[in-house]
Amino acid sequence: MKKILIIDDDITFLKALSAKLELLTYQVITALDGEEGLIKTISEKPDLILLDIKMPKLDGISFLKKLRMNENIPKIPVIITSNLSTIDKISEGVSLGIKGYILKSNETLDTITKEVQTILNT
Amino acid sequence: MTTVTTIGILVLVGLIAIFAIGLSVYFVFKNYKAKGILEKRERDISRRMYELAILKELGDRIGYSLDVQQIIDIIINSLHQFIDYSAVSYMLLGPEKLIFKMHLERSVHQRFVIDIKDRMLNSLSALLDREFNKKNVKEIISGAIIIEELYEPVRSFFNIPLVIDEKVVGVLTVADTKIGLYKEEEMTILYKIIQQASKAVTSLQGVVKTEQAKVNAMVESMADGVVMTDIDYRIMVINPSARAIIGLPKKENVTIFDFIDNLEGKFDIRGKLEESVKLNKPFKSEEVLIRDKFYKIFVFPVKTNVIRGIDEKDAVGGVVIFHDVTAEKSIEQIREQFTSMIVHELRTPLSGINKISELLRGGPEKIKKEDFDEYIRLINVDSNGMLELVNDILDIAKLEAGKFDVKKEPVDIKKVIDNRAEFFKPSALDAKLAIRVAYDTELPTLVPIDQAGIKQVLNNLISNALKFTKANGSVEILIVRHKKGIKINDEFARLPTKTALSLPEDKFVNMPESVVVAISDTGAGIDAGEIKELFNKFKQLNTKSETGIKGTGLGLAIVKGIVEGHGGSVGVVSEIGIGSVFFFVLPLN
Q1: Is the interface score ipTM higher than 0.85?
Q2: Would you say A12 and B355 are in contact if contact means Cβ atoms under 8 Å apart?
Q3: pTM of the predicted protein model
Q4: CA trace torsion B175, B177, B180, B185 (10° rounding)
Q5: Do B352 and A83 touch (CB under 8 A)?
Q6: Which of B81, B98, B469, B587 could disulfide-link B473, Cβ–Cβ 3.0 to 4.6 Å?
């Protein structure tokens, strides 16, 4: 069973997407900010990370930088899921090697899970 | 008898003849004298005419030229009309060399020229008390030719010093091979003309100097960087701002290469100057980032009509202006950030509700009861948050448009505050916070306020205080009546509970009678650097609340707008680790 870590302070999104992914028999772990996300990345070793940008304590971009700097963590695919549509954040994420950028308000739970499945199956 | 008579007649005739001769001599003499007077008068008139003519010519031909050489040339070109000479010459102090120019009316020997040159060098040395190198002279001879066989020395000669603005700039010399030519009369006239011209140039230079000083002072004090170059890109004018922009505030002789080096290829100053001068077109750059600041750079060709006359304009160089747009740029960035923040804050709850509805649409029978309840709660929380934000945005828009109507009515402010404290009690309880209200006994029963507006002010301030205070902390709402001249902290001391921090006395010293409401918390406190921007609508603090609840930063801007609409004012005192006291003042009159 594939393990997915969702790092997001948007509780509604977290709850809804978790329910959806669990229905598809994925194992879902959640974190409410970047710091918690980093700890869970190391302890849980997920197969995929869904990462928000605007979060307390440690934001998504800083999380990515820390993740890439730590050589002990194996390369885990990351999809950014955010409501920010500013170009600079997207390009910053791309330069840090993300697999995709999902604008939450433009997607349904269905389209998001399809994207997740595609990445996990490659 | 006949003889006597004859003699007598002869004598008479002789007498008559003598008389006639005497008379004719007298007339001839008288005539001669009159002719002399006439001739002198004629000479005077022609001299006067010459003086006038030369001054008119000077006026016409020189215009507003300040070129001394040009002026002297004009004078000597027409001097022969009045003074007789073999040669007229001048010697001027040039920027590098002495300029010696001799115009020959008649041919002379080479030695005549050398003699005059030496005499002029000597008199210039004497006038300026300074030695000159004979080799360092630029020589121009014009007019008649030099003939070797014809040696006639200098026999008549006079010098007139050329003085501009009380400084000797050269000498003018008139010389002839004939002896005893120049009397005081000729010298006086020439001296007068030279003096007139010198006076004109001096006063013109004075005007130019004053104007130049004004222009210099203006250019010096300009915030924009200004650089002017000639057509060979030599820097003629540079102001302190321009020096600072390229990071050379102290350098004396800044060259175009200093600009090329320090602009680091971000702006091709030389190329743009060339283009602008060649095409006779101004140029405006996009924003260029130079040493942490943004500039718009303008390049203009500089043309002048002084050199050739009114219709023909010559390019003399170019001007480059560096206009700092950093402030505009940062305002623009703040606006963009603000918009993107609002968009984010609106999308988040809306897309959350949207996702939940997607789950619910799958059929409630598939959802566990506890999950279902949780979904409903989340929809409620998100829609509340969004409603609050939409209201805030609408309020800000109203305040901006000046349409936020404050309708003051006498209201029992105690009741309004009690109502708000009651409203927030459940959420304070959830957050494990105490919420307390304390009134001043001197508080008037009725205060003129806009009830709905003040309710919103209290909502925003109290919800902020609750958001940013840790569990087991407290939020106090304190109200006093302030009187002019009384210390505000003494007035607050009348209350059973204290504010977390003292209020700033100076703000209240001259404040007329009013009601002061303070919302004091034991929260995280605000960094001193951020307090200034707190009431600015475009400023959202980086500080995350203890509970992780995000704010848009609009609440305080609305508070400020409403309170100012009441004729009052807002303020805050805060210290990291101790807490914050937000207060607002409502005037009683």
Answers
A1: no
A2: yes
A3: 0.54
A4: -30
A5: no
A6: B469
